[in-house]
Amino acid sequence: MSEFQVSPELLSIYLEDARGHLESLDHCLLTLEREGHDPELVAAVLGPLHTLKGNSGMLGLAAIKDYVHRLEDVFAQVSDGNLRLEPSLFDRLFAGATALREAVELAGREKAEQRDLTREIAMLDQIIRGAASPRPAGAAAAGVPLPAPAPAAHPQPAEGRKGGELRNVAARSNIVRVDFAQLDNLLNLVGELIIYRTKLHRAGQELAARLPERDAGRELLDAVQHVAGVSSQLQETVMDVRMLPVRQVFERFPRLVRDLARQQGKEIELILEGEGTRVDKAIIDEIGEPLVHMIRNSVDHGIEPPQLRVAHGKTPTGTILLSASQESSQVVITIMDDGAGIDPAHVRRKAIERGILKPDDSLSDRDAMQLIFSQGFSTTDAVTEVSGRGVGLDVVLKAIERLNGLVEVESVPGVGSKFIIQLPLTLAIISALLVGVSGESYAIPLSTVVESLKFEEREVHRINGRDTLRIRERIVPLVRLAELFGLPAANPAARSYAVVLGRGDKRIGLVVHQLCGQQEVVIKALDPAVSGAAFAVAGATIMGDGRVVLILDVASLFEGRKQALLHGRRATAAGVEG
Fold first, then answer.
1. What is the pLDDT of residue 213?
2. pTM for the complete prediction?
3. With 0-12 CB in 10 A as exposed, 13-18 as middle and 19+ as buried, what is 138?
4. Within 13 Å and on the Cβ side, how many CA atoms surround 124?
5. Mind listing the pLDDT tens digit for each residue in 357-379?
6. How far apart (Å, rounded) are the C-alpha atoms in residues 74 and 124?
7. 429-577: what fold?
8. Could you tell me which CATH class the domain 246-424 is placed in?
9. Res. 404 pLDDT band, cuts 50 70 90
10. Local structure of 114: helix, strand or coil
């Protein structure tokens, strides 16, 4: 294998380009397999392949370059009508595309060609020889004539292609590659600018109040207002640059569904909607793995085999819908299938078998379906390559909760299932409710706040050793923020506020002393030693007056991890006193 010495920047550019060209190849193969021969599509894929071949050769990746060159020859034979794309050929081309992707990724990671493509190159050579072998006039290599390609779809003569390549080289690009870390740094600087803008505004107000007859104060306030407008536009622009369409995640799934369906002998159509919905890149990078588990779950557990679907009065081809849409400050991703659905009774039985649920536990159908997100849970008896190990949906739940999102499931047995994922549009800036507790301020992500209300201590009831508050017809457990962080307790006679937080259909009430209003805050990461679920702290933000305010990790409050640590300290203290 040839080794090459290139700068990390050049290697990164090569990998990004190669991934895009490989996505084009997958899209071309999937479309041809589904819709049949399309001369324009075959001609269109030759461009990305030619670019990938040239870039690979420039970096000294000889095997990758040779494989892509053979692949160009295969598509050229298809374009000329000498080769028919039949199912067996598609299987070999898809396998080769997978090997090519592995070779590119390994070469990028190891700085040398690690994946041997000799077998795959020989396979393409065999296909090309078969296309070039003598056969009856007008017949393709598979023995069936192809539709005559449209004249415009033929690749241009060599001279024309060279001219087109020269025009492409001369064309100007309006795209600049920027490392995401630089955008993060730019956003941090914008956050600092907003903090000092607020300080400057306050200073201008004080100066105008002290010098009411002077124009200096009013001019300063006018200048500050202009700075405020510009800085707000700058913040919005930086945030917009960080936003990417979810298409970058969705476009990998048609190939995944196709391969899994063939592996299991099923017929499945994947429908994508809302691919243009824009989300922060930090979220784009994290949702890929959870969605893979969800799609695999729909293919394996949801869609039935064709003969079973026909027996139940359905079409032999199952459908999976993957959609994204923006609702206010959140993005909603839906995975829906018209498969077998989820039987709550079957879920209960499996949960009892696996020790997740006790036989005498009473659960509603809705709560029972949520058990599929439990660690180690699976409704499949046999372990396969796709499922049965109980490591699928619990991974999804944990990943979504890390992103301050939630997952809900709806299902009708025999009709299908629907999984709904709600995520914030960005992890960099959030709308937060600011609350005060014993002289300290905290920020609560506004997306988790259901309502807030005043209450008196006499309204609190003790149930199973925990304070609760009756809100309309619901008993809501209370978490006292002062106790949680070891702050002085307030005067028992003073009125307190309960900020009701929601996670799915669950509710808890966070007891605070003041509601200070809501505003957008820039999230600052904290050292793991003082943040995370164990501390109920997701990060921090800096206010306009320079104060540092902690942002609460709401998911950990629902799971009770912080409270468990608190109770442990209390128990230890009680033991020492005794």
1. 62
2. 0.70
3. exposed
4. 25
5. 888 877 788 888 888 888 777 76
6. 7
7. OB fold (Dihydrolipoamide Acetyltransferase, E2P) (2.40.50)
8. alpha beta
9. confident
10. coil
**Which amino acid is it at 137?**
A
pLDDT bracket for residue 273 (50, 70, 90): very high
Any idea which of 217-226, 340-349, 390-399 has the lowest mean pLDDT?
Answer: 390-399
3 state DSSP class of 458: helix
Would you say 302 and 340 are in contact if contact means Cβ atoms under 8 Å apart? yes
CA–CA distance, 537 with 188 (Å, rounded to integer): 20
Q: Name the CATH code of domain 8-170 (choices 1.20.120.160, 3.40.430.10, 2.40.30.200, 2.40.50.320).
A: 1.20.120.160
For position 384, what pLDDT does the model report? 55
Query: CB–CB of 380/387 below 8 Å?
Result: yes
Beta bridge partners of 249: none
Q: What is the 3-state secondary structure (H, E, C) of 228-245?
A: HHHHHHHHHHHHHHHEEE
| DSSP H helix total and E strand total for the chain | 18, 18
Between CA 137 and CA 150 the distance in angstroms is 19
CA–CA separation, 58 and 525 (whole Å): 40
CA distances from 361 to 123, 355, 476 (A): 58, 12, 21
Q: Which of 194, 265, 247, 250 is nearest to 429 (CA)?
A: 194
What is the residue-averaged pLDDT of the chain? 79
Give the residue among 188, 193, 179, 206 at the shortest CA–CA distance from 16.
Answer: 179
Task: DSSP for 5-71, please give it.
Answer: ---HHHHHHHHHHHHHHHHHHHHHHHHHHHH---HHHHHHHHHHHHHHHHHHHHTT-HHHHHHHHHH
Report the candidate in 258, 245, 254, 334 with the shortest Cα–Cα distance to residue 284: 245
> Which residue type, as a one-letter code, is found at position 38?
D
Question: Which residue type sits at 97?
Answer: A
User: To 5 degrees, how large is the angle CA 39–CA 44–CA 50?
Assistant: 125
Q: What is the pLDDT of residues 202-221, one digit of tens each?
A: 777 777 777 766 666 677 77
